[in-house]
Amino acid sequence: MRSLTFRRPDDWHVHFRDGVMMKTVVPYTARAFGRAIIMPNLTPPVTTAAMAEAYRQRIMECVPAGTDFTPLMTCYLTDHTDAADLVAGHKAGIFTAAKLYPAHATTNSAHGVTSIDHIMNVLEAMAENGIPLLTHGEVTRADVDIFDREARFAEEILAPLLQRLPELRVVMEHITTEQGAALVLAHKHRMGATITPQHLLYNRNALFQGGLRPHMYCLPVLKREKHRQALRKAATGGETCFFLGTDTAPHLRHLKESDCGCAGVFSAPVAVAAYLQVFAEENALDRFEAFASLNGPAFYRMAPNEERVTYVERPARIAEEIEVDGAGKLVSLFSGEAAPWSLAA
Ligand code: DOR
Ligand code: ZN
Hints:
Strand content: 15-25%
CATH class: Alpha Beta
Mean pLDDT: 97
Radius of gyration: 19 Å
Shape: globular
Number of helices: 11
Number of strands: 15
Structural class: alpha/beta
Helix content: 25-40%
Order of helices and strands: EEHEHEHEHEHEHEHHEHHHEEEEEE
Bound molecules: (4S)-2,6-dioxohexahydropyrimidine-4-carboxylic acid, zinc ion
CATH architecture: Alpha-Beta Barrel
CATH topology: TIM Barrel
């Protein structure tokens, strides 16, 4: 049985939601990870430093006693973001970064940015103050095929923006394509990218395996096999610009198994095991710690976690569903199956 000891990892892309959902999901991330970037797409979105600080405190109330976990807060950019509030919030240690959701690109993005030109003053302030821009990198125009949205964003929006603001530091979140990975690599001195477990494990066939599979649906949507292979190469290839970010995105079972199902894969309970499976399959376990525990902190200019954790290649049965305090159920990645790795007792 193989085992691997490494620094406690961080998750650089997490959705915690709020209320009973948050109460249910926070412990899964807090037990496995030292820190997490918390996405701000609540209703209403987290758009000010005061809202972020209040949300941070609500999250801390859900962290199990004795668990060392730090949520890192982000600002939801809108066409009307107050640059001064963002910069002050960053200086006060409340905001770690700001998130760009193109309007209508995904869950709760209705208040997102309608055009980069509307937030140039904010982006300039971010560049000046070293505040990272985290992008949901998809164009949303109806004439662009959903499978091409990321590649078109990289080419039409991100590449010109990088030219326009040479000091701006950018994370392309949840990259899903070889074009996304290539753009990040070409700007690796000031860019990073998170990669989710599902985009490393599955190609778009998984959406239709024997029928329609709502729990495999997330945004950006799963892509062709050649893109999955490019992502596996990026994650395991030793380049420091690629790091762990699950995009764990819980939605109640009945809202995913619906006529118009929500986008998001809830992976927090099994995320580390899922990534370990990928690195084991690629014979790259020696590079796991860099991806999971070193590259992210290096991009964010933080020290890596000191604590060490050990995982063993011992399958663990994963529950069919998780109760959300009277509201409904959650179905996680690997639910009803075995996760191939587990935390050593
Ligand atoms: O699948 C997704 N779910 N993609 C996103 O960009 C948002 C997320 C969510 O918040 O549910
Ligand atoms: Zn996300």
